[in-house]
Amino acid sequence: MNTPDLHPGILSPDTTLIILTWVSFFFLLVILHRFAWKPILEGLKVREEYIRKSLDDADQIKNQLAEVEVTKLRIIEEAKEKAGVIIDQSRKLGNELAVQIENRAKKNAEEIIISAHQEIEGERERVRNALKKESVQTAVSLAEKILKENLDPEKNRNLINQAIKDL
Question: What percentage of residues in the chain have a pLDDT greater than 90?
Answer without folding.
Answer: 55
